[in-house]
Each structure stands twice: as C-alpha cells, then as structure tokens.
Amino acid sequence: METSSNTPDGLRPSQHQNGLWKDYIINVVYDRYALDGLSYTIQFFIGGPPGEDTTNFEKHNYVGHVYSFGGRHSTSEGSCKNCKGQAEAQVLSCAQVTLTIHLLHRIRDYVPDHSFEGVEEYLRRYLRWRVVKYGGEVVSEEGFKRKFSKLQISVLRGTGRIKPGNAQSAGSVSSLHSECVPLPEVTYGKPGGLRLDKAPENSEPFISQNKSAVQPLPTRLPQQAKYDLYPLTNLVYP
C-alpha cells in the first residue's frame, strides 16, 4: 500500500511520514462454544443511508468475517475431549478482520473532506456485524443477548509501513504494523462492542504479545482491565 497522492488524507499519519499509512483492524474476542459447539460466522458490514446511524446488511457493504469452527461438547457421544475441556474452562479465541483497504475504496465517495476524523466517524456510524448460524439463520437480538455475552468487538488503529528492503513481487509486498490503539467510540453501544470503561485512553498504545507463543486467552476481565489482556495469539484469519 503506497502513501502517495492516491491515498486519502484520512489514511496518512502525517504529511511528513512518507511510506506510512493508518491501518485499521477489527479485533474480535469470541466464544467458540457460544452455540453449544455449533459452527457460526460473525459477518461485518460498512455502509448505510447518508447521515443515519444504521447499516445495510447487503453484499456490497460486506467487509469480512470470522468463522468459528464448531466442536460439539454437550454430549459424551462423538464429542471432542479437548473441546469439552476448553468450553468448561471458558477459553476464548481471538481473530482479526482488516479494514484499511475497504476504507480506502469508500473514503473518496463517503467522507467528503477525506479527513482523519471523518474516517473514524464513518466507522462509528456504519460499521456493524451480525452472527449467522451454520445453515444461514441470523441470530436474533434476543438470542445474541443470551448466547454471546462473552463476545467483545473493538476497532484498532495502527501505523503500517513497508518492510525495509522488501521488493514488490507478484503484485504484493510485506508490511509491518505498530502503535495500535483501540477506538472504543467506534463500537461502543453496539451489541458486543468494547465498552468505553474497558479500554485505555487513546493515547495509550495497544501492546501485542509474542506471536510465536500461543497462549490461552483470559476467561474474564479483572476489575482494572487493560486492553492488552487480549494478546495477538490464536489469530484466525477468514
């Protein structure tokens, strides 16, 4: 991804930082066993009527998903011992969905001044999600409240840059990402959205842990919770 005249101002860290861009991701902490081990998908969408805080769940607004592969544990017959143990221990999983490319395509048309603030206001207004069961049934609002109380969705803003010495090959390049901070105002008040009182100040960076060491995620947040309780391990990419 290049930061040139083709990149809207809203995705540039500053005018003096060439080769860098603002990188947005959705961070998802979820319970694989929320539906008693049945598979389900969390689908994400951006886009809706101008000036309204609502989202149209249509194909052209789709930006990505997290798929939770099922592991039945409610019965002894045919159940996975490991899955049953994880469910009883309330082990959570973590996944991420990238947003930057989708924003790049939308900013020019839907953020009039192409500003940094406009990008995040657009996310606040129009980013939403739904849970779809295996077979295509959308989980109802009531079903969501009963089954998905552990789900936590947040948006992070970081800085992306091309990896030093990396040459473009086959139309793609490797990139590095750092200085991630949560944006709780984007998801606050939405079902499963990160609460304002559960996130650090926006000036406090999100500190990822060693990705080479796969560790279980915490089963619950302590009273003085910090966002970095969710390490970037156990990542699942759609």
TrEMBL record:
Keywords: Monooxygenase, Oxidoreductase
KW Translocase (keyword) present: no
Residue ranges constituting the Tyrosinase C-terminal domain according to the UniProt record: 23-155
Top-level division of the source organism's lineage: Eukaryota
Cofactor: Cu(2+)
One protein family per Pfam: Tyrosinase_C
GO molecular function, one term: monooxygenase activity
Entry protein name: Tyrosinase C-terminal domain-containing protein
